[in-house]
């Protein structure tokens, strides 16, 4: 090949690289522009909070301050981790919006029946009931809010229903509901807070059924389904469900063609039979890398605690407030157990990824900055403080022991964002320290890499995104409108936990595959850009499937349906890569040091396709979501995605780091294999023995009778549902006993049997370019020829 041909080929490769980089930047620009502009539409079209609610005679029944105070009481008590509002929250308790709407319908029917016929609604003839039902439906759908004065005027029947709703919740939070794990005495029946929280629930039921101005549906696009209140699925939910499937098929074919046509998979860097011999015990180990082992010991301890809390919560579903006859409702009621269950999940998964980031940085740069270990230990102390302090604060806040400090130190009241504001600030500071640790370790490699879109820079950009996107949690405050709170909350959950952490992990895995000599650098960079392009192009606006029923405009049904359906495509491609990872394990043979890591990467790929992809695609179709939103089907997807994808990925990254720090004789691969199968079989068992079957029954109950019934106590008490809830004890036991416990033993043993650091600060020679990453510890070796070759 001539010099000119070589130059032309290099120029073509460079131009191709620019296309992918510019494509990724364009996808990010368009995606976040659409998300922000859609957020403006959400803000402008949010349901009004009336300045005052009055009856026909002008008597003031409630004010905006009452509704706001009721919302704050709902948050302070942590009730989103017991029941739900607008379908978002926990599943044991009722959905307070759906229940309030159902109570409203019943009270209004009885009022009109007594006024017209002098008898309760149940005692009327069929024709009389039909007449009353039609009148109630018209009254509920009619919007009597005056935007000029900020006054919502209720009919006499609606006044009676508001009083019925208040009476119901005053009694509920005073007496409790032990059979449903709700403690007594949360609010005194005659307290102002009891009336205000009822008025807040009543307001959410009003906005869920009254017509949005200029539209033929409610502020929540007619959710929850309750035909008696006039709430039925909209045409938009139906048509965009079909359109999303059609567009998925089109784009799936197109992207698979591009992926195959331009060979966008990572290319094998070794010849068949010359698999790189990688000996983890002989790789350099820096003081900061060695210091990460305690992070992983904390990870498995938190993971076990989280899993035990999950088992306890499963008992609450069938035993009410007791655990095998022991009343735990005063010490650890369901809503606090679930709060800790969710927070510990975020903590242990995030800690594993943060630890891996610290571990990888010296490998990338080839050097250990001065006092890096000190910073790693400071960060560890900060994380322990946040975990312990926030969990204690959540218990104190939700049990009413912090008074007006509940938001700062206690329970913020938002699912996944429960920790108090001060703990949030400390966590954000910890993420900032982590970014500084990673940056100072990468600094030399960043200077050496001339391409600002190269692999090292990608690693830095993905690291920056983690603290940056957590910052949106600070936009949710007690005074924030309910709809806008949910809008920003999903920025943190979907874009921070499910988005940016996965972006960081994908880039780290790509780098490690290059560093181990398994794939070529050029193919890895190109494949990563392609993966990130389709992942973020679909995932950013795909956040919209969380906005279907929160009070956002109907446009979000279209955007959320289409883009969340397209999220299946990158998940499918990641699953296809599992075959390449399987080949690595097979080619590495018995001496391959990272088999455990690749087992969990294979599990991640499977759960990406099944837990996040299949289950997520099913429940995110708007027409299906309309009936199942807030059911066990959501929980099935949540477990399959959070534990199946992000949990398994965190364990994969953790085992990679630990494999390099542990003494050879202390690495227990057999025990970790038991943990691998225990976790995966236990998780699959939870989903198929309980979560999916109960969710399917809830979907049917919602479709036939209304969502209020699918979340009622009577539904959970049916014999079939009770049996399915009890059966879950089997997969839960497998998950804990054969998954969490062996993992804990293996990781703690590795932590207690670490190698000594082999190099000191500044001991690695700085690398000039990532293409020159030293592979001196990775010795190519030809496998013995098979007999007859």
Q: Could you explain the architecture of this structure?
A:
This protein is mostly helical. Helix content is 67%, strand content 3%. It is built from 26 helices and ten strands. The strands form four sheets. A four-stranded mixed β-sheet has the order 2-1-6-5. The chain has a two-stranded antiparallel sheet with strand order 3-4. A two-stranded antiparallel ribbon has the order 7-10. α21 packs antiparallel against α22. It starts with a helix and ends in a 9-residue tail after the last strand.
Q: How does the SSE layout of this entry go?
A:
Layout: H1 3-44, E1 52-54, E2 60-63, H2 64-76, E3 84-85, E4 88-89, H3 96-117, H4 126-141, E5 145-146, E6 151-153, H5 156-175, H6 192-209, H7 235-261, E7 276-278, H8 287-291, H9 293-319, E8 322-323, E9 326-327, H10 334-365, H11 372-398, H12 406-409, H13 421-448, H14 455-470, H15 482-515, H16 521-542, H17 555-566, H18 568-588, H19 595-620, H20 622-628, H21 632-661, H22 669-705, H23 707-710, H24 713-716, H25 719-727, H26 729-752, E10 778-780
Parallel strand pairs: 1-6
Antiparallel strand pairs: 1-2, 3-4, 5-6, 7-10, 8-9
Helix pairs in contact: 1-16, 2-6, 3-4, 3-5, 3-6, 5-6, 7-17, 7-20, 9-10, 9-26, 10-11, 10-13, 10-15, 10-21, 11-13, 13-14, 14-15, 15-16, 15-21, 16-17, 18-19, 19-21, 19-22, 21-22, 22-25, 22-26
